[in-house]
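User: Sequence in, structure out. Go.
Assistant: Echoing your sequence, followed by the C-alpha cells.
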Amino acid sequence: MGCAPSIHVSQSGVIYCRDSDESNSPHQTTTISQGTAATLHGLFIKTDAADSIPSVLAYQSRPPQQQQQQQHPRGGARKGCGGATGQHCCSIEAETQTSHTSVKVSVTQKSSTVNLKRVITYFHQQVSTTEVRLGPMRLTQDPIQVLLVFAKEDSQSDGFWWACDRAGYRCNIARTPESAVECFLDKHHEIIVLDHRNSRYFDAEAVCRSIRATKPSEHTVILAVVPRLTPDQEETTVLPLLHAGFNRRFMENHSMIACYNELIQLEHGEVRSQFKLRASNSVFTALDHCPEAIEITSEDHVIQYVNPAFERMMGYHKGELIGKELTELPKSDKNRADLLDTINMCIKKGKDWQGIYYARRKAGDSIQQNVKITPVIGQGGKIRHFVSMKRLCQNDNNKQLYKIHRDDKYAVENSQSDTHSFRHKSRRKESLDGKSITSRSSDAPSLQNRRYSSMARIHSMTIEAPITKVINIINAAQESSPVTVAEALDRVLEILRTTELYSPQLGTKDEDPHTSDLVGGLMTDGLRRLSGNEYVFSKNMNHSHSHLPAPVTVNDVPPRIALLLDNEESWDFNIFELESVTHKRPLVYLGLKIFGRFGVCEFLNCTEATLRAWLHIIEVNYHATNSYHNSTHAADVLHATACFLGNERVKGCLDQQDEVAALIAATVHDVDHPGRTNSFLCNAGSELAVLYNDTAVLESHHTALAFQLTAKDNKCNIFKNMERTQYRTLRQSIIDMVLATEMTKHFEHVNKFVNSINKPIAAEESNSNSEGSDCESAPSVKNSPENRILIKRMMIKCADVANPCRPLDLCIEWAGRISEEYFAQTDEEKTQGLPVVMPVFDRHTCSIPKSQISFIDYFITDMFDAWDAFAHLPTLMQHLTDNYKYWKALDEIKCKSLRPPPEISD
C-alpha cells in the first residue's frame, strides 16, 4: 500500500485509480467517471480520517450527522457506509456541472490511508482556466476561489456550496471570524460570501472590516447575505454595508439557482474587473522602470501619474504633481508663444503631437525635451487621458541631466574628461558614424543604412579653391553634429555644388539695414550657416475637420454681420470689424458673399452647402494664434482680389474660369501658415522644407493642403461635379497663382508684367491717342493665355501685400500684426540658436516705421505703379501716398512704434 496509485483511462471514459498492489482487495480501486474533478475539491467528502485530507478541504468537512442522507439538488445522494472493524470507509458520489464537462465520482477505500489526496491534486490540475484580455495583454485566470463564512450550516450555506460546485469554483467554509481571516490569508479568495443575517454568532461587518484590513483583500469581492424582508418591512439603505467594506448584498434565498446566478454575475462583473486591475500592476511596474519620463493626465489636463524617471528629470516628487493641473506648473519662456495652442489643437483632435518643448524644472532652469503626446480614447469614443513621453534633447543646456540619465555606451565614463571631449561624446549619440548607428539604432532609423561617403571624397581633394575649403569645413562639422544639423549641412553641400552659387545676387537700393533684412528674409531660402545647436521644428502639421458649427446660409447671416457685408465691395471695407463680429471667422461669411456675387457655385456646379463646408474647413486650418497669417489675412486678400476682379479693365481681360481660380487661390493662399518665413523653415530643417526641397516651401504646402482638404470629404469637395479637363485647367491656374505669392521671384513677376503688359499697352495707347483704349484695343496683348497668367499673378501678388494701400487705420493695424509675427520669429531664432534672418526685427530695438518705409520702397511702389498703370486704381495709390507720408513723419521724430507719442499726436 506504500506505493503511489496509478491512474488509467478506459475507452468508455472511466478513470481508474489503483494502488500498485491490486491483488490485496477489490476495495482498493477508486473509480472516477466522465469529466473533471470539481467534485473532488473537497465539497462532498465524508471521512473520519481527517489527517489524510489536503489542507484545502480543512474548512469544508461537515459534521457527520448532517452528511448521512443529504439530497443533491439533482438527485445525487451523499452517503456514508460502514465497514469491518478497524477500517474507515469513505464514499463520494455526486454529479456536478462545470463550464466544460460533468463529473461522476465514486471512491471506495478500506482504510484511512487512501491516496485520495493524490487523486484530488490530479484533478485540481485539470480544472480549466479562463482567458481574459486587458487591452493587448492576454491573461489567464485560474478557477475562482470562494470562501463561505457561515457560523452554522443551513439551507443558505448549502445553496452557495452547491452553486460553487455547479460553477466549478473552489470553495472553503469558515465557521468563525478567526478561521475566516486565516483561511483568506492562505488562499486569497476572489469571492467571500459572509452571513449577515444574525449577529448572535459574529458581527459580520466587523469580520468584513478585519478582512479588508489585510492587503490581499484589495481585489476581493465580499458579498453580504442579508435576511429577506417581510411584507411589512421597509427597504433599508446599503450604505452601511458599503462603508463596512462589502461590495454587494444578497437577499436571503435558499435556491441553488439563485446563488449560482449571483456568483456567475459576480465572476463576469466585479471579479473579472478586479482581476484586470491586479494585472495592471505589471504595467505600472514597467512604467516605473521605463527610462523615458512618462506623464499621464486626464482629459482636463490634471496630472494623474508620473513615473520615477519623470520625477528625476523634473526634480519634483510625484506627491507635488499628482492632482494638479498642468497650467499650475511653471512654464519656460523659451517656447514659442503659440506652441501650447498648437499642441492642444492637435491632441484634442485625437492626433499625436511630437516635437521639441522647453520645460521648467523645479529648480527653475529650463531643459529641452523631445516630447510625444498621445491621446487615449476611452468610454464613448472620447479622449479620456493624455500620455506624454519625454526624453532629454542632447544639447549643452541639458548636459548635466543628460550625463545622469544617459544609458548607452557613449555616456561620459571618465570624470576627468575635458569639456571638448564631453561635447564630442554627447553629440556622437545622434551622429551618423557606424558605431553610433549600432549603439543607438532607434535615434534615426531612416538614416541608419547610409553614410556621407561623398564627404570623404571631398576630404581627399587637393584643389585649394575657396569653395573646397568651405566644403571641407562643413564636412568636418557634419561628422560631429546631431542628425538634424547633419541633414541641413548635407543640403548646404548640395547647394554649394550647383551653379546657382555663381549667379549674380540682387542688390538693395541702399544700405538701410531694414531693407537688407527684408530682402534677406523674404527673398532667399534662408539656408545660411547653422549654429552648433540642435533644432527640430516643432510645428505639427495635423489637419482635420473642426468641431465648430457650420455657418448659416447667405440668406440667414446674423444682422450685424449682414450689415457689415453690405459694404464689402468698397476698397475701404474694414476687415477687422468683420473679424470681431464673426469671432475670428471672417473668411466663411465674406467668402459666401463674394463667391455668391461672382457665381462660383454655378460655375463649379456645386451647392451652397458644399461651398459653405469648404470655406469652413479651409478657415479652421488657418492658425488663429498667428498675429498676421490667419484667416483674417486670407479674408483680406480675398476682398482685395474681388475688388480687382470688379475693375472694368481687369474684367475685360479675364473670363469666369479665371475669376473663380483667382477667388479660390486668394482663399487658400496661406492655409496652415505656421507664422514663420520660408527662411526660418529651411534653417530649422523642418519637415516641410525637406518635403519641398527648400523651394517655395510654404506656397507649395498651401496649395497641396488645400486640394487635400477639398478631396478628403465629399461634403466639402467643391470640384466633385466638374468635368475632368475643366478641373485640371482650374487646378493649374490656382496652383500657379498661389506659387506667385512666393517673394523670391517677386521682381521676376513684376518685370515680366511690365515688359509684357504695361509697355505694349502704353505703346498702343500712345499710337491710338484714345482715352478709351483699354482691353478691347489690344486684345492680342491682354487676352493671350500667357498674358492672362501674368495678370492673374500680378493681381494676387498685389492683393497679398495691399496693406500699405489700405486706409491708414487698417494699414497701421496690419503693420503691427506683421511686426509682431516677425518679432516672435526672431525671438525663437535666438532661443533655438538658429540664424536670425531679419535681425532688425528685435522687439526691443526695431523701428516699425523704418521697416514699413523699407518695405514700401523696395517691394510696393514699383509693383503698384505697374498694377495702377494697367488697372487704373487712384484710391489705392492715394492711400499708399498718405500712408508713406505717415511712416516718414514717425521716422523723422524718431518714433519706433505704430503711433506718435500722445503729446505730439495732434
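User: And one key feature?
Assistant: The first strand starts at residue 6 and ends at 9.
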